[in-house]
Amino acid sequence: MRGYPGLKIFSKGLQSIARLTASEHRDLMKVMVFVVDGLLSDDLSEVYIKWNEMYMLSRLEIFKESDLEKFQKAINEWADLFVILFRKKSDSKMKFPKFHSWIFHIVDTIQKYRAINGYTTETYESLHKSYVKTPYRLSNKKAIIKRRVTEELHKTPTALIYTSKLFEFKLLEASIFFEQQKKNSDLTENMIKGFAKFLECLDSFFDMLDIISAEDCRIKIFGSITLKNINILRATNKFQNQPWFSNIAIAMNDAELFEYQSDNETCYAQTLLITEVILPNKLPFYLALVQWYDFKSKKTPYMLIDNTTNSCNDNFKGERWLPVTLYVCIGTNGGWE
């Protein structure tokens, strides 16, 4: 913005932004106060201003003693107004551990361990997401605290039990095999769709792992797989005389989160193929080819994800390879269980 080099105008609006970078998010924070001014109450506008002041101080890489004093003052001013505004709406009266830690301990932490920029989000937020948010969203929400406290945490990889092998072929003969399967009247649209994208996505997967040669590679395609938590992932043309391609919930990788529209950081997809990829002198790769519901990444509509666990309709917009050792929501095409 001319005359104000620290401010940025989003001339094309925000709807066209597929992915908001951290820098753009900070630029948005600077100008948003002028957007909400006059639309919201003075107190809400003021608490937002105080949040921004506190946030900018928290991003300092080096703190002097005077900076810490300013930071603590900014925290106290923001927290006092925040509690006044939202205490009545909080069942716990704003008695949150993270809130308390921020107000009373963050400055001491900086004095002891230096700047917080970097480790706070990467450590505590990621652990909270992995061990609290994601398991809660994928549960039935009943007696969740008791279940999480008493739940056994598995430190070893989830055991995979493949059942109902459907096909097996050499990778070098895959194109011929898929062409022959086009005449198979028993195949459903989902499996045909999976065959159409199989080689393209597998090639991307090999590129990611720097696998140059796939000579003597064999492919097995299964109808289902049982996980150690007893959930069953299915991708079969006929199960009890009906096609069944399981829906799954995927907790998005933080690095990719802003590329996708998500339901509180969780996306949904439908399984197309369940495969075992066998290369000589390597451990097998257990992969599932899935299709997103509703949307795709404008930057990379076909890409790979690794060790990550989308409102549902029948719109098919993109495929990705996904390791099957994840949290799975098993259900038929018509609903969730």
Describe, in plain words, how this protein is organized in 3D.
With 337 residues, the chain is an alpha+beta fold. Among the domains are: 120-153, no CATH class; 161-323, no CATH class. It has helices at residues 22-36, 42-58, 65-86, 97-113, 119-137, 144-150, 174-181, 189-208; strands spanning 161-170, 218-226, 232-239, 242-245, 247-251, 266-278, 285-293, 302-304, 316-323. Strands 1, 2, 3, 4, 5, 6, 7, 8 and 9 form a 9-stranded mixed β-sheet that branches. Helix 3 (65-86) packs antiparallel against helix 4 (97-113). Mean pLDDT is 74; it is low at 295-337.
Highlighted features:
337 residues; alpha+beta; 9-stranded mixed sheet; 8 helices; elongated; disordered C terminus
